[in-house]
Design goal:
The complex is a heterotrimer.
Chain A lengths: L3 H6 L10 H15 L4 H27 L5 E8 L2 E6 L2 H28 L4 H20 L3 H19 L5 H33 L17 H14 L11 H4 L5 H10 L1 H25 L1 H21 L4 H22 L2 H32 L10 H4 L1 H15 L5 H15 L3 H28 L15 H19 L2 H15 L4
Antiparallel strand pairs in A: 1-2
Chain B lengths: L4 H15 L5 H28 L6 E4 L10 E4 L1 H28 L5 H20 L3 H20 L5 H31 L4 H10 L7 H17 L9 H7 L2 H27 L1 H7 L1 H23 L4 H22 L2 H32 L10 H4 L1 H15 L5 H15 L5 H25 L12 H19 L3 H12 L1
Antiparallel strand pairs in B: 1-2
Helix pairs in contact in B: 1-2, 1-4, 2-3, 2-4, 3-4, 3-10, 3-14, 3-19, 3-20, 4-5, 4-10, 5-6, 5-10, 6-8, 6-9, 7-10, 8-10, 9-10, 9-13, 10-11, 10-13, 10-14, 12-13, 12-18, 13-14, 13-17, 14-16, 14-17, 14-19, 14-20, 16-18, 16-19, 17-19
Chain C lengths: L20 H13 L1 H19 L3 H23 L26 H31 L4 H27 L6
Helix pairs in contact in C: 1-2, 2-3, 3-4
The chains are: A mainly alpha, B mainly alpha, C mainly alpha.
Chain lengths: ~500, ~500, ~170
């Protein structure tokens, strides 16, 4: 059913342009609900939606490369409040990463949910579809209101995913998740929105920042900046990171979705939007917001890594690693140099691919061996060689070693920091973080590959169901692949940096 | 026919109210629905006509052919056309919805009487809205009130009797204040027609300094604040909403207090005039601002602690009426637009929520919050309705509630009332807390036991229309031009 | 009371902010000519007191009636003109009646309506009181509330237990 859309897209639907991906995902949602009594069809619809969605994003990318301006006016709710969509380089970075990984995540979900025989799967897939619709909408939103609206929708529609198991632990985690995210967005982001509108009289993103020519006291602008950045608690800047580990109670495909692809990236994407298209680099530098952002990011990177070191639960360790890695993106866009921005934006894609591999791996270990603690992983590399190899690739990428994706983005970050006058501190933080990452990932690999299996465990290879293994192998391959060929992402990130800082990189 | 429309929208329900007791039970229901459908169609037509007129003009209808200062005049302008459409639309939907619900909650011999009183109340509320004469306003107010006392007291439990009685005492007190206000106004101006009083003020602006006029305005404000349950004068409301039969609750909660709020707007802006608000008695405006803000915060806070769904929703209404009054206190175009949007937005959301409570009463025989458990599996459509309406109450973007808050926030910033912003945000947070509690039970409580069926379609369909309105009004700019035009017309 | 033989009020000095004898005389004069307004205010206060303070539901209704009556008196007072005649249309006006002012009939008409409204409200109120007496066996507000409270308490305790069970309150960290 949704497959017909790109065919029609050549006709009148093409005018919808960037509005198409969210609409297709909503159609997918209806399809999932309609097929609720036939699991095969339902999962088929989910997978097809993910595929069509990715194809649409690629189509938009191709047309954007060809130099077309793609926009859809959407609908106006009120003067100054419109759901309108536009394709630009920054949005495409996020949309490409999210829609591409979405396919694999759906594949993995099908394997995971079936192997576990989970209840309430229709609700699960429906919320999944709504979540990707929100991500697509946010990526292509042409104004801050659209971003805010889809940000909220994503918070709300991932709540049923987090609470999925409905056990007391899941309830507690989900409660914390929603309290923090919703509290921050109502208490900080919304007033930030009011303030920006009050100052600028518009919410439409502008290349040099919509607040660029606005006469306002520096203090007011800094306040607006802080409200927006901390309001987007999804970027998990300390101290508003607590929701992220709490949400680890969710089933693993959800954790992968939340912590690698959609939710956290929505946060850092939102902050990038704020930096580039709400404030603009010049205003950022004038009011000192860039240094503020770098400071917050450095603090988060180091402290979250230290916390990760102390975690025994594998998923919790990954969660704190995510908190720390997200701030690489904040750091990059905050540096105020072209190379820094490129590094930060690349890290959206690089981190997503590597971290989703790690989560898939953790989920596969749980599925096959029911182990969740780092201390239980002795010798597991021999039982699950494919999974652990993939996991190792992901871990190397987190540390930033070649030949993995993480190396590329960190290289740009180092170059960006070197160009910054106060770069020494940032460089020190980057080095320290790499060491800390090594300190909490390498012991896992060492245990898995070099320690003997505990006595009494049967030997022999025992992997998770094939869709899961397939998905995590593909993401691991992707992690290496992004090291070798990161062309489109790099081009897009360069385009953003070029628009913001001119030719210098 | 078209020329007689302002009278017909009142007269048709009024006449039908007389005919209903003569008809059989089924025919009576058909008559109610038909009368209200006709009234709704008439109101939509009036809305269109009022907007076709040039700015500042209104449809004027002299009742019985007696021209304005002597006779009673009905006036339809952009503001009350909006309220009339809301009123008759909700009344029609509730009429469709209530057949099965009243059959279960009202003793069979009393059902036709209930229908008749219901129609009278709808006619009374519409009369308050359409009239251009202050004393006629009082009379319609009493018609709507007396019928409301009766409709509330017909609740199943004995508490309904006492709730009806309390409302009667406080409501009559409020009405007496309003009557005194009218008396003082008449004393100073010598006329009762709103347009005529406004003309007197325009001729003799020194009247604004007269203590008689100020007293009149104070009486109006206190009396109407009592009728609209503006915090801290809300004492009668939770009991009344909670104990009334479900159909009464839906209709009352969606419309009644807002009509009183409309009356305050009408009196303040049309009768006393914008200039009086600005210069005459600023203390009343400040008092209204404080009362509205307190209501906005305290209402949802009190709602959090309730165990009965209808009582919870009633406290939430205490907060929501604050939004409707806030625009008057902010006194600028954006603030007024926000409040006028809320006439429709709140009617849709609160109507839908009370429909959920009614569905609960219909299926489970109780309106305890705990009975929501497992609703998502038993009655997914009703649970979706609850979800959408609750989101609109919180003010989630893309629902109707967000637009209200957006415009009120803009109005507050424009008026330099920065303190209103935290009030709006705190209220959203508190509302989120109780909405979350309801949704948690409906969707995420462990459900065991058999899957019960949803309420019949005759109840589901009208309530889903209200739920859909929460979404449509949030995305499509339907209400906005109407509300903006109304706001501009007043200023 | 001040000393016998002393003045009832302090003498009017230039600095005295309190009303002097002259002002007091004004008040007396106003009372003498506008005593109906004084009575209306007094009646209203008595009615308001009864409505708010009395526990007996019937007495509250009586208070409401007093309140309404006070308003009637107020309206009739504002329509009153000294020395005026009833506003009757004469077909054959007696000689000398031309130019005689007549009283304003509008307040009377309004009060006719208000009386009807008042009677209706009283009727509904009394009907409710009768039903309340049947349901509760008392017309005392305190007893009714106590009786309801006992019932509600039992119900809400049950509801709370149910909800806690449903929501698995143990989930809190």
């Amino acid at each position: 059913m949704s497959g017909a859309v790109p065919l029609l897209g050549g006709l009148d639907l093409a005018g919808l342009g960037p509005g198409l991906p969210p609409l297709v995902c909503l159609l997918g949602l209806l399809g999932v609900v309609a097929a609720r009594r036939r699991p095969n069809l339902r999962e088929g619809v989910s997978l097809a939606t993910a595929g069509v969605n990715f194809a649409l994003v690629l189509w938009l990318y191709a047309r954007h490369r060809a130099g077309e301006t793609l926009a859809w006016e959407g609908f106006s709710l009120a003067p100054g409040l419109a759901l309108s969509f536009r394709v630009d380089a920054l949005g495409l970075v996020f949309a490409l990463v999210a829609s591409g990984l979405w396919i694999l995540n759906t594949l993995y979900s099908i394997g995971y949910m079936r192997a576990h025989d989970e209840p309430r799967q229709t609700r699960f897939y429906a919320c999944f579809a709504l979540a990707i619709a929100a991500v697509m909408g946010a990526a292509f939103s042409a104004n801050l209101f659209g971003l805010f609206a889809f940000y909220e929708v994503l918070s709300l529609c991932t709540y049923p995913l987090v609470i999925h198991a409905q056990t007391p632990a899941a309830r507690a985690g989900a409660r914390k998740y929603l309290t923090l995210l919703l509290g921050a967005s109502i208490g900080l982001l919304l007033p930030g929105l009011f303030l920006v509108y009050h100052l600028a009289g518009t919410l439409d993103f502008a290349p040099g920042g919509l607040l660029a020519g606005v006469a306002a006291a520096d203090g007011t602008l800094v306040l607006a900046f802080l409200l927006l950045v901390y309001g987007m608690a999804k970027c998990a800047a300390l101290p508003l990171h607590g929701w992220l580990p709490a949400a680890m109670v969710a089933p693993t495909p959800v954790s992968a979705l939340l912590h690698a692809v959609a939710v956290v990236k929505m946060g850092v994407f939102g902050v990038s939007r704020v930096v580039f298209h709400v404030f603009g680099p010049e205003t950022m530098a004038r009011i000192g917001a860039d240094d503020l952002l770098v400071g917050v990011a450095c603090f988060t990177i180091v402290v979250a890594s230290l916390i990760a070191l102390a975690q025994d639960d594998l998923k919790r360790r990954l969660a704190y690693s995510t908190v720390s890695q997200l701030s690489y993106v904040l750091l990059g866009v905050g540096l105020g140099t072209g190379a820094g921005a490129v590094g930060g934006l690349l890290h959206i894609g690089m981190h997503a691919t590597s971290k989703i591999t790690l989560f898939f791996g953790a989920g596969a270990i749980y599925l096959a061996c029911h182990k969740t603690r780092v201390s239980e992983l002795d010798g597991i590399g021999r039982r699950m060689p494919i999974t652990l190899t993939a996991f190792a690739i992901g871990a190397l990428s987190m540390i930033g070693l070649p030949p993995t994706a993480g190396f590329v983005s960190k290289l740009f970050l180092v170059r960006g920091a070197a160009a910054d006058p106060a770069g020494a501190v940032v460089l020190a933080v980057l080095v320290a973080s790499a060491l800390l990452n090594a300190a909490y990932f390498l012991p896992i690999l060492w245990r898995a590959f070099f320690r003997p299996l505990p006595a009494g465990t049967e030997a022999g290879v025992h992997e998770a169901p094939w869709p899961c293994v397939l998905a995590l192998s593909l993401t691991a391959l992707g992690t290496v692949g992004l090291f070798l060929g990161h062309g489109p992402l790099l081009d897009l990130a360069r385009a953003v940096a070029h628009a913001a800082f001119g030719g210098a990189e | 026919m078209d020329a007689q429309l302002p009278a017909l929208v009142i007269v048709v329900p009024l006449l039908a109210a007389l005919l209903v007791p003569l008809a059989g039970r089924r025919a009576a229901w058909g008559l109610v629905a038909l009368a209200l459908l006709l009234a709704f169609a008439g109101c939509v037509r009036l809305l269109v006509r009022a907007h076709a007129l040039p700015e500042g003009e209104a449809i004027r209808y002299a009742l019985g052919g007696w021209a304005a200062p002597v006779g009673i005049e009905y006036v339809v302008d952009r503001l009350n056309a909006l309220v009339l459409t809301m009123l008759s639309g909700v009344a029609f939907l509730v009429a469709l919805w209530m057949r099965r619900s009243t059959a279960r909650e009202i003793r069979p011999p009393a059902v036709t009487g209930y229908y008749s009183v219901f129609l009278l109340m709808a006619a009374g509320l519409m009369g308050i809205t359409i009239t251009g004469d202050v004393f006629n306003l009082y009379v319609f107010l009493e018609i709507a009130s007396i019928t409301a006392y009766v409709l509330i007291a017909m609740g199943r439990r004995r508490q309904a009797l006492y709730a009806g009685y309390s409302y009667l005492i406080l409501g009559s007190l409020g009405a007496t204040f309003i009557l005194l206000g009218i008396g003082h106004l008449y004393m100073a101006t010598g006329t009762l027609a709103m347009a005529d009083i406004a003309a007197v003020f325009a001729r003799e602006p020194q009247l604004y300094d007269s203590s008689v006029i100020r007293t009149a305005f104070a009486f109006f404000t206190v009396g109407l604040a009592l009728k609209m349950a503006l915090f801290p004068l809300h004492g009668w409301q939770p009991g009344a909403y909670a104990e009334a039969p479900s159909a009464t609750s839906v209709f009352l909660a969606a419309t009644a207090t807002k009509v009183s709020a409309y009356a305050l707007y009408r009196v303040a802006f049309t009768v006393f005039g914008v200039r009086f608000l600005e210069t005459g008695l600023p203390v009343v405006r400040d008092a209204l601002l404080v009362m509205a803000c307190s209501a906005i915060v305290v209402g949802p806070l009190l709602a959090i602690r309730q165990h009965d769904l209808k009582r919870l929703l009633a406290y939430s209404s205490v907060g929501q009426i604050g939004y409707v009054v806030l625009g008057l206190a902010l006194h600028n175009a954006d603030g007024l637009t926000g409040s006028f949007l809320h006439f429709w937005n709140h009617a849709a959301a609160k109507g839908a929520l009370f429909c959920v409570a009614g569905a609960l009463a219909y299926r489970a025989g109780t309106t305890q919050v705990a009975a929501l458990k497992g609703l998502g599996r038993r009655a997914p459509l009703t649970a979706m309705l609850l979800t959408v309406a609750a989101c609109s109450m919180v003010g989630v973007p893309l629902t109707a509630g967000f637009l209200t808050k957006w415009y009120l926030a803009r109005g507050a910033l424009e008026a330099g009332q920065w303190a209103v912003i935290p009030v709006l945000l705190a209220s959203s947070l508190f509302t989120a807390v109780y909405a979350w509690r309801l949704l948690q039970l409906a969707w995420f409580a462990d459900e065991d036991g058999p899957v019960a069926e949803d309420v019949p379609w005759s109840m589901r369909a009208p309530s889903l229309v209200l739920g859909a309105a929460c979404l449509v009004l949030g995305v499509a700019p339907l209400a906005l031009p109407v509300a903006q035009a109304a706001a501009e017309a007043l200023l | 009371m001040p000393d016998a033989g002393g003045p009832l009020l302090p003498p009017a000095g230039p600095a005295a902010a309190v009303p002097g004898p002259a002002a007091f005389a004004d008040v007396l004069g106003w009372l003498a000519t506008h005593y109906n307004y004084a009575i209306y205010i007094l009646l209203m206060m008595i009615g308001l007191y009864a409505v708010l303070a009395k526990g007996n539901l019937v007495k509250k209704v009586i208070g409401l009636n007093l309140l309404q009556t006070a308003v009637f008196l107020f309206y009739l007072s504002i329509g009153k003109i000294d020395g005026a005649t009833a506003p009757v249309v004469w077909t054959d006006r007696p000689p000398g009646a031309e130019g005689v002012p007549y009283e304003n009939p509008v307040p009377h008409v309004l009060m006719l309506t208000a009386i009807v409204v008042g009677v209706s409200v009283t009727a509904v109120a009394l009907a409710l009181v009768v039903r309340i007496r049947e349901a509760y066996g008392t017309v005392d507000e305190g007893e009714i509330l106590a009786s309801d409270e006992a019932q509600e308490e039992a119900e809400s305790a049950r509801a709370e237990a149910q909800e806690a069970a449903a929501d698995a309150a143990g989930a809190r960290e």
